């Protein structure tokens, strides 16, 4: 009697089902749905780095900073399109430098780690400034652009310091949204341009306002932007008390609606900003107090990731009219601050259909704002205001790459028939299946003979369901259950969608999604994720990334392009060595939002710059180690020192009671335990 497996193979040979997928091994093509390019991948016999470049959409999201080099590794061009070929940094050279043992000249660190490229940050800032400069000069606009960086996007000291340093020549400033951020911004801006703006946004109490006013005493160019009407009385009272002439602004609640996820608080009913009536009352009161000349700035922010220039223009036009009205009402208006919203193309689609992309370039964004403000102001015969923006995402997203390592992979479906559980005698097995399952099996065979793939899938699903039920009732062995799982997988691969023709694996990575990709966890925000090496080789499997935490949310179920898995290379640590993946464009918000789930903590951080004099073309300029187990415990009010003492006492007591541990041994044990507090919380992969 043939086994169940042979039966199905016979069916396949009977040309009712495609044979090859049943034996889909490691060299099966990855199924790429939809596009014509995708089909050409399937057909091509050879593989090349340019196919990887297109497959992972690097041409869409990565330009001008990321590319695939001839060695099949990601290369980083820190000066964007101005990077000389000799300045390309091979990301695997960086990985080797970071992970090589100290004795070999490396840092001896483990992944995950963030590689920061401050030169990219500089390039982003300069590109933003130059886009506005060009728009100003091509339109003949009568004022300049002077941006601020909203520190909430990434408050890391060295990033904010870099932004202040790189932006000093063009008076780049900072935006704070809380007392702590204001302290940070003041300190960093003390090395910046004296004309740089320090914009104080957010809800404010007397302490926040006092600090902002005091910062003016320290000669910072601080503007207190009213988020609520109540803040006005505090400013009036405290500025008199502290004897400071304040500069204030109003945040207008625009009626323009940004309909994406990031615009959910926009519009008339939105959460933030002042209504028209509130602005009018503020103007009235400032006038009564003889302070109308303190009102100099109009701010609005309709949300992050504005998808189109049409929406940019709509909001800028509404705001420009409010600005002109404030001028008419007698305020000494000077600056219009258009907020954030300048978007990033995370999926490389250059479309306006999702929160993951935008349909414009930096230059188009700047030209839209400048053109719109100019047209309204000219219409109203109002002097052109200085333009500021609070572009956070567009400034810091590109500059870091998060690198993490796969530590194991497992099959979701049994792809390798050699590993399958032995099939039982089919007659006995069919007997034990029960009537319904037997009927399913027969229908499956019949459907396979007809070549009806849809029916095959249907009957295989039902067979599996009935078999599981039978197992739960104690009517089947584990081997029998595994056989039906295998049969189900084979049928799915043979009769299912093209993407199920390839092995599906779970790739377990040494990372916490909660800590390093909180926006994915929180609201499904996607980032480009891809292997950073082996890109000269065909990816032969599809993987779903699952993290180190023991949480069902700790996996990535959707990838850019809407795919539910990622084309990956076979991961066999023994044969192929380590396998590194990178997450790109995550420089804004992710680090600031990341939490302590499972107490894994922040990854290590290295910063590097290009250096023509060094063999690999770069130098590491700073290492910022992630927290140790002890640091993490301390951050949650545990006290490692006391914990070690307690372990020691316990060891000594046990030693006395049982005679098992001498005093010396107890000391050694607790000393050994103390060492664990200094350890790296992520897996140390050898
Ligand atoms: C008031 C304000 N300004 C600026 C930003 C930064 O926006 P983006 O990162 O889209 O530039 C935000 C973020 O939502 C914000 O709330």
Automatic annotation (TrEMBL):
Gene3D superfamilies: 1.20.58.930, Alanine racemase, Lyase, Ornithine Decarboxylase, Chain A, domain 1. The keyword Lyase applies. Residues 140-396 form the Orn/DAP/Arg decarboxylase 2 N-terminal domain. Keywords: Decarboxylase, Lyase, Magnesium, Putrescine biosynthesis, Pyridoxal phosphate, Spermidine biosynthesis. Its cofactor is pyridoxal 5'-phosphate; Mg(2+). The modification N6-(pyridoxal phosphate)lysine is found at residue 152. Its EC number is 4.1.1.19. The keyword Lyase applies. Pathway: Amine and polyamine biosynthesis; agmatine biosynthesis; agmatine from L-arginine: step 1/1. InterPro entries: Ala_racemase/Decarboxylase_C (IPR009006), Arg_decrbxlase (IPR002985), De-COase2_CS (IPR022657), De-COase2_N (IPR022644), De-COase2_pyr-phos_BS (IPR022653), Orn/DAP/Arg_de-COase (IPR000183), PLP-binding_barrel (IPR029066). It holds the Pfam family Orn_Arg_deC_N. It catalyses: L-arginine + H(+) = agmatine + CO2. GO terms for biological process: L-arginine catabolic process; putrescine biosynthetic process; response to cold; spermidine biosynthetic process. Signal peptide: none annotated. SUPFAM superfamilies: PLP-binding barrel. GO terms for molecular function: arginine decarboxylase activity. PANTHER family: ARGININE DECARBOXYLASE, ARGININE DECARBOXYLASE 1, CHLOROPLASTIC-RELATED. Belongs to the Orn/Lys/Arg decarboxylase class-II family. SpeA subfamily. This is Arginine decarboxylase. It comes from Trapa natans (Water chestnut).
